[in-house]
Amino acid sequence: MLRVAFFLAGLLGALNLYLTEAIIVQTVSVLCILISLGVATVWPEPLPPPPPSDLWSEAPEIKEREMKQCSNCGKVVDQKWSMCPYCSKKV
Question: Torsions phi, psi of 77, nearest 5?
Answer without folding.
Answer: -130, 170
